[in-house]
Design a protein that fits this description.
The complex is a heterodimer of chains A (about 210) and B (about 140).
Chain A: H1 18-48, H2 58-61, H3 64-89, H4 93-123, H5 132-165, H6 169-205
Chain B: H1 4-9, H2 15-37, H3 42-64, H4 76-104, H5 124-134
Helix pairs in contact in B: 2-3
Classes of the chains: A mainly alpha (about 210), B mainly alpha (about 140).
């Protein structure tokens, strides 16, 4: 940029370049669109949740233990991701790397248990083609899982860039954007936890 | 400075994150207990657990994602971010509740196989309203 930017010396790196600021604001707007996307999948799932055809009921196969493991893995990963950005703002590259790698590990753990759960459901006779309800389930939860998978690759790439180039206004904006994405995945999971799993189990037992 | 980012960016201990994390765990476990460990009616269970879900989503947005944070010295970007997320939440609620309402509140009459075929589609709402009470 031609003119000299005047900013508070405390302004975090990711907000220092105009590109960084615009990308972050743009990403917030993208997250709004993601909310609408997931809303359509939630709507489809909730409309079809009782259409189980000859297959098992959803709540019949849900297990509290597996649910809690996945929930706590993702919730903790959101927390450690927040700590990573906190360290980034203290210009502590090592701290950023460490917490982000822990975040990735927790994300991989989440995926492992999610895939285990999907395999368990398929083994019990509930796959994506079993009934409308299970189609809705696998599409909704699977889309979230695909987002997590993409997030793991994305964060890994950004970390490699940080390792190579260090913390600059450009790389820190990328880290910040991936952190927003990662937190957002936990926000979506909160609603999957509530609308899919808790509701499914309440409807089945209660 | 008016810029909120400066204030919470360089603190030593990340209290905000820790409080957000602990509250998230509490809300998660409490929702689980309400759903599976109490004898409340279905309506109350749903109201409470969805209340907790929105609360927890707000926690993530405020404590972890800093949605109100401004990237410029004006307060514009924080407002745009919050406004955009609130509008997205409104769209999401309309999509989900609207779909559930339309598909389960008796509007989906074509489910009934024994329904006599009528040529007159114009009177869909009024003509079939009376039948609704008869069918199970």
């Amino acid at each position: 940029m031609a003119h000299v930017e005047t900013h508070d010396p405390n302004t975090p790196l990711e907000y220092r370049s105009e590109t960084g600021r615009l990308n972050i604001l743009g990403f917030w707007i993208f997250l709004g669109a993601e909310i609408a996307l997931f809303a359509t999948l939630f709507a489809t799932y909730m409309v079809l949740t009782h259409r189980i055809a000859d297959g098992p009921a959803l709540g019949e196969l849900f297990e509290v233990k597996s649910l809690l493991i996945q929930t706590f893995l993702l919730l903790t990963s959101s927390f450690t991701c927040g700590l990573a950005v906190h360290e980034m703002r203290r210009h502590n590259v090592k701290g950023l790397m460490l917490w982000m790698i822990i975040t990735l590990g927790l994300g991989l753990g989440f995926l492992y248990f999610e895939i285990q759960e999907f395999l368990h459901f398929i083994h019990e006779g509930a796959n994506i083609g079993t009934s409308a309800a299970w189609s809705g389930f696998f599409v909704l939860v699977g889309t979230h899982g695909a987002h997590v998978t993409f997030g793991i690759f994305w964060v890994t790439m950004v970390l490699i860039q940080v390792a190579k180039r260090g913390l600059t206004p450009a790389t820190s904006a990328k880290v910040f954007i991936t952190s927003l994405y990662w937190h957002f995945l936990d926000v979506v999971w909160i609603f999957i936890f509530t609308a899919v799993y808790l509701m499914g189990m309440v409807m089945h037992h209660g | 400075m008016a810029n909120k980012t400066a204030a919470n960016g360089h603190g030593g201990f990340p209290w905000k994150h820790l409080i957000g994390f602990v509250l998230s765990i509490v809300l998660t476990l409490f929702a689980l207990w309400i759903a599976l460990g109490t004898d409340l009616s279905l309506t109350w269970i749903l109201i409470i657990i969805f209340g907790f879900a929105f609360l927890q989503a707000a926690l993530q947005l405020l404590m972890f994602m800093h949605v109100t944070e401004n990237s410029t010295s004006t307060k514009l970007t924080g407002r745009v971010q919050v406004g955009n997320i609130l509008f997205a939440a409104f769209v999401a609620i309309v999509i989900v509740l609207g779909s559930v309402w339309v598909m389960t509140a008796g509007h989906a009459k074509h489910d009934k196989h024994d329904e006599p075929k009528t040529e007159n589609h114009g009177e869909h709402g009024g003509a079939e309203k009376s039948e609704e009470h008869g069918s199970h």
